[in-house]
Amino acid sequence: MAQQLLMPKATAVWLVDNTALSFDQIAQFCKLHPLEVKAIADGEAAQGIKGLDPIATGQLSRDEIERGEKDINHKLKLSEPKVRVPESKRRGPRYTPVSKRQDRPNAILWLVRNHPELKDAQISRLVGTTKSTIEQIRERTHWNAANLAPMDPVTLGLCSQIDLDLEVEKASKNRPLPTAAELGASLQPASETENLGFGDYRSEREEEKEIDADAVFAKLSSLKSTRTEEEDEDDRF
Fold it and tell me: What Pfam families does UniProt report for this protein, alphabetically (predicted)?
């Protein structure tokens, strides 16, 4: 991997302000256009960018800057890094230990049943299998289909829970929304449910009100008649 300059514009700002290098030299070193470097020098570009000292970051030596200032045709070169960071290896097919390869069909069956949204490529990445094996297990044409039992690949140690969750999340994002037929009749429109049973409830409440009113008036009448009889008896004496 070729070494690259960190923060080219910030480095160009520093070189413009602190060196006598030409615009072409700074542009060549920072991978910018000479007119862009001129705009930085004129204050028309990179106004809010703070200059980054390439000497402090170890990307350019002071001797290299002095050589460039003396020779206008000298092309600045990046300094060799003091620490070499190894390149990350490209991720290939997942390796499955020989002792666990016999568990892969059970893990595939578990994934097919519990996460039907997963694509064959995703299942292949998780357990390190081939698409033909996945198709055989889906269609139950696998040579050992009668003896297979669904088993969680995380429990078997074929993949991590994080990898499984990531693949399920990716598959869920691409999955279309369920249709009305898939949802079934569990949900009804609000227009059909907003007055459901309200008429019966209202009639019951009105009937209760009528009954209560009759009872109250009957009770009042009985009290009035009793009071009248008591007054009559008082008049006699």
Answer: TrcR
28 Cβ neighbours under 8 A, 6+ residues apart = 75, 76
Domain boundaries, the chain: 8-70, 99-174
So what's the pLDDT on residue 43? 86
CA-CA distance, 176 to 185, in Å (whole number)?
19
Residue 78 contacts residue 60 (beta carbons within 8 Å): yes
- pTM here is 0.39
* Residue tagged 């003091």 (tokens): 82
State which H helix or E strand residue 23 sits in: helix 23-30
- List the structure tokens of 94: 């997942």
Residue 1: pLDDT band with limits 50, 70, 90: very low
Report the Cα 185 to chain-centroid distance in Å.
Answer: 31
Cβ–Cβ < 8 Å for 127, 96: yes
* DSSP symbol at 48: T
Confidence class for position 146, pLDDT limits 50, 70, 90: confident
- Supply the DSSP string of 217-230, one letter for each residue: HHHHHHHHHHHHHH
CA distance 69 to 75: 10
Please name which of 139, 142, 74, 76 lies closest in space to residue 104, comparing C-alpha atoms.
142
Q: How far apart are CA 194 and CA 161, in angstroms?
A: 44
CA 153 – CA 107 distance, rounded (Å):
5
SS3 of residue 66 by DSSP: helix
| Measured torsion, CA atoms of residues 203, 207, 212, 217, in degrees rounded to the nearest 10 | 130
Closest to 7 measured CA to CA, from 53, 69, 74: 53
